[in-house]
């Protein structure tokens, strides 16, 4: 039986655990001539640089900020949507709506890039042509950093609303009708029924999904960010997250030491964060904790 | 009191219908824009911008895309190959792992589960992984590198474990053992057959992951013949503009490619098949997610 598990174990060993050795790079100033293990050891120099230049702080704030927005808005909206869907009687409409809302999840992130371009580009974007038609000035979206905060959140919601709504809807459908019947007899109106029965029943699911999301809070939706922002330097301050920074370091600047330092920081921070949150949740209610 | 409730219910139901319609339209709208853009005459787009309904119908975008079909066909081929192989291989490993991990008589199952799960909590980061794959495993520009990293995700393994646990009663496994079957036999003949819905769901997730991937191609593939579909699309939409800008600034005439319409047409061609398959497939996704949600 153990043999059957072996390939999996080997896979994770090679793919995830062995690379941890590379953490060493975070403490070197890599240069091409000396190679990976010959480059000078500089201790925490990389970290100090990242910290003092404010880069680390900004990346952290962006990463956590966006993720919090994603989690809070995403789940709230999904729960609302699921509740609304559950109250809809017409079967065909319900199925159709569900299918259409699930579609964005299927679509690749590159397509989101195209959609964003279609909507937002200066010359031919849909929004800009509407603005022109209404006699207003065009907006150069790609050089207005702060707007992208909202845009990114919007696209995230667009992609994942259907996905999360389906999950929550499944849980709602599983709630026994008896609760609702009893509440109705006791005189509760529909808003009360939802607030006092449906919402509390969704709480365990929400917490589990929340914990899963928190585990990757430092990782963020790399593909989403990169496809929307790309290499547009103007937008970096508002939209760069740890993942995109590291990715660019590999593709563009090839600064191994710095990139590994950022990556290590990301892993460590995330790890500490989830351990802390899990600990707190365990104290509050043991069942909900992840481990 | 009864009257009040009926009123509230009606109000709520109306709100529900309205909001769901809004959500649905918002989900659909961008896709419609792209389709419309792909069918519009390029000049119209340049002059008036993208619109919801093609002002001037034209298939130029598509014609240009299909003028040199080799590249697209190749990208399709690569992607189909990696998706099929990756999903088949991955499913094999994931189901085995899921089966083993849910067996109550497997002593260290919790420790191993944690070993797998831990990789989602902490890791060396992108850089060491990249270095390892390129320098030490020499996987640059190979098909392997497109398949290997996505084979097993902790999320899917744990999902599979839940599916198998709820689909296979322990007594069945025990009686098979008494009959003399070894673990692999049990897995192959019994487990695979009985957990079909779960396998279908996990398989679909895995296939979707491979099909939509562009990340691996961007990092590890320089040989344009090995590009996967999504990355190919990404390249096209980035370079079309680039080529045109270059052509304009250097005074070279390369004809007048219908860049905007072409971009849209390309997107449709690349995404099309998924959207076609989607109605058939989404039922399984939804069902699988539903089951997973309730058990999870």
How many structural domains in the coordinates of chain A? 1
Question: What is the CATH homology-level superfamily of chain A?
Answer: MetI-like
Instruction: Indicate the structural class of chain B.
Output: mainly alpha
Q: Proportion of β residues of chain A?
A: under 5%
Main sheet overview of chain A: none
The averaged pLDDT of chain B comes out at 79
The CATH architecture of chain B can be given as Orthogonal Bundle
Global structural class of chain A: mainly alpha
Per CATH, the superfamily of chain B is: MetI-like
Which helices and strands occur, and which strands form pairs?
The complex is a heterodimer of chains A (291) and B (296).
Chain A: H1 2-17, H2 35-38, H3 45-52, H4 55-86, H5 91-106, H6 109-120, H7 126-133, H8 147-173, H9 177-185, H10 190-215, H11 222-229, H12 236-239, H13 242-253, H14 256-284
Chain B: H1 2-38, H2 42-48, H3 60-67, H4 69-102, H5 109-121, H6 126-136, H7 144-147, H8 154-167, H9 170-178, H10 183-194, H11 196-212, H12 215-220, H13 229-250, H14 259-295
């Amino acid at each position: 039986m153990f043999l059957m598990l072996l390939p999996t174990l080997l896979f994770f060993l090679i793919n995830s655990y062995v690379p941890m050795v590379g953490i060493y790079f975070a403490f070197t100033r890599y240069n091409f001539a000396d190679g990976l293990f010959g480059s000078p050891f500089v201790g925490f120099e990389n970290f100090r640089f990242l910290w003092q230049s404010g880069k680390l702080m900004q990346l952290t704030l962006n990463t956590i900020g966006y993720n919090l927005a994603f989690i809070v808005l995403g789940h709230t909206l999904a729960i609302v949507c699921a509740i609304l869907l559950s109250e809809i009687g017409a079967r065909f409409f319900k199925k159709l709506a569900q299918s259409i809302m699930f579609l964005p999840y299927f679509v690749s992130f590159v397509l989101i890039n195209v959609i964003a371009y279609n909507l937002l580009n200066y010359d031919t974007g849909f929004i800009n042509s509407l603005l022109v038609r209404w006699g207003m000035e065009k907006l150069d979206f790609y050089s207005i950093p702060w707007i992208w905060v909202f845009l990114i959140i919007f696209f995230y919601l667009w992609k994942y609303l259907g996905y999360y709504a389906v999950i929550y809807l499944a849980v709602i459908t599983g709630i026994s009708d008896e609760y609702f019947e009893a509440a109705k007899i006791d005189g509760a109106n529909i808003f009360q029924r939802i607030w006092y029965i449906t919402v509390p029943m969704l709480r365990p699911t929400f917490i589990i999904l929340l914990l899963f999301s928190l585990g990757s809070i430092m990782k963020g939706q790399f593909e989403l960010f990169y496809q929307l922002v790309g290499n547009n330097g103007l937008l970096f301050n508002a939209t760069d997250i740890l993942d995109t920074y590291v990715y660019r370091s590999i593709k563009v600047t090839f600064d191994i030491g710095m990139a590994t330092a950022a990556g290590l920081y990301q892993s460590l921070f995330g790890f500490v964060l989830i351990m802390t949150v899990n600990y707190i949740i365990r104290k509050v209610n043991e069942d909900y904790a992840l481990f | 009191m009864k009257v009040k409730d009926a009123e509230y219910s009606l109000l709520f139901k109306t709100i529900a219908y309205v909001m769901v319609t809004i959500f649905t339209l918002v989900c659909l709208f961008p896709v419609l824009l792209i389709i419309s853009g792909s069918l519009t005459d390029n000049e119209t787009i340049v002059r008036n911008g993208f619109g919801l309904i093609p002002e001037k119908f034209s298939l130029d975008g598509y014609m240009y895309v299909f003028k040199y079909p080799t590249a697209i066909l190749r990208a399709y081929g690569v992607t189909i190959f990696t998706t099929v192989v990756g999903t088949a291989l991955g499913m094999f490993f994931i189901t085995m792992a899921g089966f083993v991990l849910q067996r109550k008589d497997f002593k260290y199952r919790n420790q191993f589960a944690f070993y797998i799960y831990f990789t989602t909590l902490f890791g060396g980061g992108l850089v060491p992984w990249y270095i390892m794959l390129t320098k030490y495993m020499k996987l640059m520009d190979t098909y392997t590198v497109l398949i290997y990293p996505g084979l097993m995700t902790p999320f899917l393994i744990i999902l599979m474990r839940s599916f198998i646990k709820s689909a296979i009663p322990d007594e069945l496994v025990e009686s098979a053992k008494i009959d003399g079957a070894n673990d692999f036999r049990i897995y192959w003949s019994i487990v695979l057959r009985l957990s079909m819905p779960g396998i279908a769901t996990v398989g679909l997730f895995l296939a979707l992951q491979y099909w939509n991937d562009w990340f691996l191609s961007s990092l590890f593939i320089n040989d344009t013949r090995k590009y996967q579909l999504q990355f190919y699309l990404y390249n096209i939409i980035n370079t079309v503009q680039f080529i045109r800008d270059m052509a304009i600034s250097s005074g070279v005439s390369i004809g007048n490619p219908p860049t905007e319409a072409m971009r849209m047409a390309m997107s449709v061609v690349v995404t099309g098949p998924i959207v076609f398959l989607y109605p058939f497939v989404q039922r399984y996704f939804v069902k699988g997610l539903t089951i997973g949600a309730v058990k999870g």
